[in-house]
Structure prediction request, 71 residues.
Amino acid sequence: DPVTGRGGAATARVLADGKDVSPAGLRQLTTEPVPVSADVTGAKELTLEVGYGPFGGVRADVNWGDAKVVE
Prediction:
C-alpha cells in the first residue's frame, strides 16, 4: 500500500460451501497481484474471505479485482 507502506499484512481465503479451496499462492505474503483460480464445481455458496493477518493489524489492503465465476 503506497500510503501505509509494508507495515500491515492480511490473510485471504476462498471458501466453497465452507471448505477452504484457496490456491497455495494466495497463502503467501506478497505485495504483488496474485491470480486466483479455485475449483468451486457444485458449490452452492462461494465466500471470498479477508482477515487481519498474522500481525493483527489493519494496515493492509486486499482487493478482489475483477472477481468472477467462470464456467
Summary: The chain has a mean pLDDT of 80. The chain is about 0% helix and 20% strand.
